[in-house]
Amino acid sequence: SAVISQKPSRDICQRGTSLTIQCQVDSQVTMMFWYRQQPGQSLTLIATANQGSEATYESGFVIDKFPISRPNLTFSTLTVSNMSPEDSSIYLCSVAGATGELFFGEGSRLTVL
Amino acid sequence: GQQLNQSPQSMFIQEGEDVSMNCTSSSIFNTWLWYKQDPGEGPVLLIALYKAGELTSNGRLTAQFGITRKDSFLNISASIPSDVGIYFCAGQLQAGTALIFGKGTTLSVSS
């Protein structure tokens, strides 16, 4: 399985600010996935990020709010822009293993005051 | 969009008991997966199922991919305190693509 590192692991942010979450993988991967897990809820896909192309966003998520970068095959960032308390969640990076199953980072827990 | 119905939502059991949880979908999936999430951690893959009818074990865990490809179950035998956590089922249409998750089953084990 891939080793996935996320930074920050947690942060407390002020309303109206933006925060960028980094995801580093120990191997080259084609697709990286960003998920959101709201408190007490399941995981919801935000977007799929391919290297060299624009990320594909799921319904309900827009690029202006969650811009994503994918500069190479081992790294991606997700920015949560103009945060409000409703953005308080765990944000998770995920990549596919050799047989297609997904592995997850430990997540970035954001609290917005 | 597609949704997975996972049940039960929560379970409170005694150590040593067996546990069963299941997941159903209105759509067909080509892969079913089961994850466990501990507090403050990301989901960890327990079992992946790739063929309809497949029955796979991982230690005390056993999972099956339903014949219709629209359901899966996970059994945990002889539960222990460290089994506590949230278990998620997930369906995947194609290998390497995004997952759709169930709402999770929260397992509590008392010793």
Structural features, described:
- The complex is a heterodimer of chains A (113) and B (111).
- Chain A is mainly β.
- Chain A is 0% helix and 52% strand.
- Chain A is built from no helices and 11 strands.
- In chain A, the strands form 2 sheets. In chain A, strands 2, 4, 5, 6, 9, 10 and 11 form a 7-stranded mixed β-sheet that branches.
- Chain A starts with a strand and ends with a strand.
- Chain B is mostly beta strands and 111 residues long.
- Chain B is built from no helices and 11 strands.
- Chain B has strands at residues 4-7, 10-14, 19-25, 31-37, 44-49, 55-58, 61-65, 71-76, 85-92, 99-101, 105-110.
- In chain B, the strands form 2 sheets. In chain B, strands 2, 4, 5, 9, 10 and 11 form a 6-stranded mixed β-sheet that branches. Chain B has a 5-stranded antiparallel β-sheet with strand order 1-3-8-7-6, with no helix packed on it.
- Chain B is globular and about 40 Å long.
- The mean pLDDT of chain B is 95.
- Classes of the chains: A mainly beta (113), B mainly beta (111).
- The A-B interface holds A 1, 4, 30-31, 33, 41-45, 48, 59, 92, 94, 96, 99-107, 109 and B 1, 31, 33, 35, 40-45, 48, 50, 88, 90, 92, 94-104.
Keywords, please?
heterodimer, A: 113 residues, four-stranded antiparallel beta sheet, B: 111 residues, mainly beta, six-stranded mixed beta sheet, 55% strand
The oligomeric state of the chains shown is heterodimer
How many strands of chain B?
A: 11
Give the terminus-to-terminus CA distance of chain B.
40 Å
- Which word captures the global form of chain A? globular
Mean pLDDT of chain A: 95
Low-pLDDT stretches of chain A: none
